[in-house]
Amino acid sequence: MTSVAEAPAASSDSDHTPITVTLKILRFNPEVDTEPHWESYDVPAQRTDRLLNLLFYVKDYIDGTFSFRRSCAHGVCGSDAMQINGINRLACKVLMKDLLSKDGKQTTITIAPIKGLTTLKDLYVDMDPFFEAYRAIKPYLITYGNEPTRERIQSQADRDRFDDTTKCILCACCTSSCPVYWNDGSYFGPAAIVNAHRFIFDSRDEGAEERLDILNDGEGVWRCRTTFNCTDACPRGIQVTKAIQEVKRALLFKRV
């Protein structure tokens, strides 16, 4: 049977019709501002643009002092996490066609830094507390005894046990969407627990008890209130709340 490659669907002319949208951005410069304030910018766009493109336009053509993090621009580095219309998202993964007003009216998009972490400048937040929690759960393979003479073999079923939580890109979208984290920054937060899960349930790892003891702390896994904000915010589609519940069960029943 001869296979025939399908031609890519042609984009409509409307996808490339120039439009103007308003970006309402929460700005803060510690050198001149005492409090954050909103500033609006009218920016040209196309339906196929990513929101990140519009942020570049503001910085390159309107206000060079505007600050935000970005790196790969392909949803892998996790650098450009921010609140977009009140929801934590990666700016590089949000398409304009999904944000435009359906009634043809002028579109206004509100953009603010993620919550729960100190804003250093504009959309740029201090990630140190987030990474401190990540490092605290020992996010690396722990083994004891002599090293094996060959690779550590793992079945597909064993790999599937923790495959979902290997997708984390440490963007902090989940952690900064958590109401408990907003009110108490000492909580480990969903991202740290997700990365602990990744090793707790790895059949090659021997440090599960150590990590479970760490997460059994007053600021650990029991602080979760199961609001599902973290799962909704994850740009990688990780079942964050499910992972947290699995860690809770491992603590309750002492079984990984």
TrEMBL record:
GO cellular component, as recorded: plasma membrane
Domain 4Fe-4S ferredoxin-type: start-end pairs: 158-180
Class of enzymatic activity (EC top level): oxidoreductase
Gene Ontology biological-process annotations: respiratory electron transport chain; tricarboxylic acid cycle
Entry's EC annotation: 1.3.5.1
InterPro entries tied to this protein: 2Fe-2S_ferredoxin-like_sf (IPR036010), 4Fe4S_Fe-S-bd (IPR017896), 4Fe4S_Fe_S_CS (IPR017900), Beta-grasp_dom_sf (IPR012675), Helical_ferredxn (IPR009051), SDH/FRD_Iron-Sulfur (IPR050573), Succ_DH/fum_Rdtase_Fe-S (IPR004489), Succ_DH/fum_Rdtase_N (IPR025192)
Keyword set, alphabetical order: 2Fe-2S, 3Fe-4S, 4Fe-4S, Iron, Iron-sulfur, Metal-binding, Oxidoreductase, Tricarboxylic acid cycle
Cofactor(s) demanded: [3Fe-4S] cluster; [2Fe-2S] cluster; [4Fe-4S] cluster
Any GO MF annotation of the entry: metal ion binding
Keyword Kinase in record: no
Family matches, as PANTHER family: SUCCINATE DEHYDROGENASE [UBIQUINONE] IRON-SULFUR SUBUNIT, MITOCHONDRIAL, SUCCINATE DEHYDROGENASE IRON-SULFUR PROTEIN
The family this protein is said to belong to: Belongs to the succinate dehydrogenase/fumarate reductase iron-sulfur protein family.
Protein name per its UniProtKB record: succinate dehydrogenase
Species this chain originates from: Amycolatopsis eburnea
Origin organism lineage: Bacteria, Bacillati, Actinomycetota, Actinomycetes, Pseudonocardiales
